[in-house]
């Protein structure tokens, strides 16, 4: 068993690999009704509520987080907030212009580059991975399309690895090669017949990153930088490659651990370790982006307005496949590169959340850009079940208050 790989997802982590065959898994959900098409009703977003937004990040540092940054925008006003401590060792106050690890928000960028290649005629969503990347999958694997990679209906499994934090901490400086990660994953059978269910897993976006490299003949990092970061003027955003550090001004990220854990320091009634410096090759095209709130606000506005992906090719990012979530009858919620969120007032938002140990981030907007939100929270337990509550509170305060 190899070193652990954090998955970089807030609400859905890599689950244990299915031991059943694809046909058995498919038959297990055959009785589930086909979900209806998702529709977005025309609902006006409410006015910005500064008090609700301030409450969503108040009293930091707190047991669940040390700092938070929020930017809310749109056609009817803006709001900015920052609270907490950026470095527990020095007591330095949090700032709103610093870099942070964006985690699975990276998937929006990976998907956008693939869709650019589709628009250029270099890639087809109906084309198979086996055509573009021969030999990557076992010969026994069924055909998996590029579109199924992007919307997580491929059936690809996750690597069978120890995800416990102790192992993650021990191997935090390990460098992973993308091909190594995928090879470990595809030693396992597909989880279901491609196109029949949805299972959000980093394996899909790793393969999408390899597809970008094969088609362009250049590195994934080069393509995201040249196609998105530079054209949009996202000067504070970058893909770190093998470097475990965050360049420039940034907040420190911490993970809560038991008392006596190696390298830990007291934090209230608990203890934490500093996870700021760590390899992100374990999530690569799924979660290695380093960015700022301002840059991500720039990106979401450009993406939704058709300035990153041509409007004619953007629809997959706003389309939830009509399948159920893996292992049950709940309708799918992920699009290609994002997820769809129905808010209490009836309005619908699209976006992406992400988590690295010590860092939780989120980007969201209504499709008409009448309201946008970007946040970074230095969560003290970013991978724990239910740790999304702070981020969810920010999103609701921004979009549905």
Give the overall form.
globular
Count the DSSP helices.
Answer: 12
- Give the spatial strand order of the biggest sheet: 3-2-1-14-13-12-11
Structural class determined from secondary elements: alpha+beta
Mean pLDDT level: 91
Query: Low-confidence stretches at least 5 residues in length (pLDDT < 50)?
Result: 1-28
Q: Percent helix among the residues?
A: 25-40%
Main sheet overview: 7 strands, antiparallel
Our measurement of the CA-to-CA distance between the termini, rounded to an integer number of angstroms, reads 47 Å
Number of strands: 14
Strand content bin: 15-25%
Q: What is the gyration radius calculated from CA atoms?
A: 20 Å
Give helix and strand order, one letter per element, not per position. HHEEEEHHHHHEHHEEEHEHEEEEEH
Multimeric status of the protein: single chain
How would you sum up this structure, described in words?
The chain has 401 residues and is an alpha+beta fold. The chain is built from twelve helices and 14 strands. The termini are far apart.
Architecture blueprint of SSEs:
Blueprint: H1 22-28, H2 50-56, E1 65-73, E2 79-87, E3 92-93, E4 100-101, H3 106-119, H4 129-132, H5 146-150, H6 165-170, H7 178-185, E5 197-198, H8 202-216, H9 220-229, E6 254-257, E7 265-267, E8 270-274, H10 284-287, E9 290-291, H11 293-304, E10 324-325, E11 339-342, E12 348-356, E13 359-366, E14 372-379, H12 389-399
Parallel strand pairs: 5-10
Antiparallel strand pairs: 1-2, 1-14, 2-3, 4-9, 6-8, 7-8, 11-12, 12-13, 13-14
